[in-house]
Design a protein that fits this description.
The chain has 6 helices and 2 strands. The chain has about 200 residues and is an all-alpha fold. It is globular and about 55 Å long. The mean pLDDT is about 90.
Length: about 200
């Protein structure tokens, strides 16, 4: 792991832009004919204690798009870092371009993987895929987890290999959660999700 910590505010802004880019690619991908080929559920229909592991809504489509899209977005961050003035080059991580690309793929994987425990939890609560649990406490819990899970997953993945300042975490936990919710609303309105949020 690197010792050099990037500028927390600049890092947060760059990560936000990278994930918005990757999210936009994913939304576009979800409407392609090719994406339908990857619409099989990740759990393959398997059950745990009589209920599906994740449900029909957790398919391979998101992984197929988000991982390479985030890799490209991070590669662009690496290119951007190289055109910064010399005194600001340390505002991001001092790593090679190929490392930015791999780091982005890894962060995209963490982003997508972090959605699965929430789906597993909702199936245990008896919630149908795409719907919310009936109990009020469960609805609130699942709503919060739905918005924050991917952000935490991406940040944890990044933190395994590069320093991510605590302020970057805080900024992205707030702003990233709001942006993730907005993407879910957009996906709902374009018909890619069965509910907003």
């Amino acid at each position: 792991m690197l010792d050099a910590s990037p500028n927390p505010y600049f890092c947060a802004m760059c990560l936000m832009v990278a994930f918005v880019f990757a999210g936009a690619v994913q939304v576009t991908w979800l409407y392609s004919k090719v994406a339908r080929r990857f619409g099989k559920p990740i759990d393959g229909g398997r059950l745990y204690r009589g209920r599906r592991l994740f449900g029909d809504n957790k398919t391979w489509r998101g992984f197929v798009a988000m991982i390479p899209a985030t890799g490209v977005a991070f590669l662009l961050l690496g290119l951007f870092q190289r055109v910064l003035p010399p005194e600001r080059q340390d505002w991001l991580w001092p790593i090679a371009l190929w490392q930015y690309a791999l780091l982005g793929c890894w962060a995209g994987f963490g982003f997508m993987l972090a959605e699965l425990p929430n789906s597993f939890l909702k199936r245990r609560m008896g919630a149908v895929p795409g719907q919310i649990p009936h109990q009020r406490w469960a609805r609130v819990t699942c709503f919060i987890l739905d918005q924050i899970d991917s952000v935490v997953g991406a940040l944890l993945a990044l933190s395994l290999f590069v320093p991510v300042p605590m302020m970057t975490w805080l900024i992205l936990l707030v702003s990233g959660t709001v942006v993730h919710w907005l993407f879910n609303v957009i996906l709902f309105f374009v018909g890619a999700k069965t509910r907003a949020g």
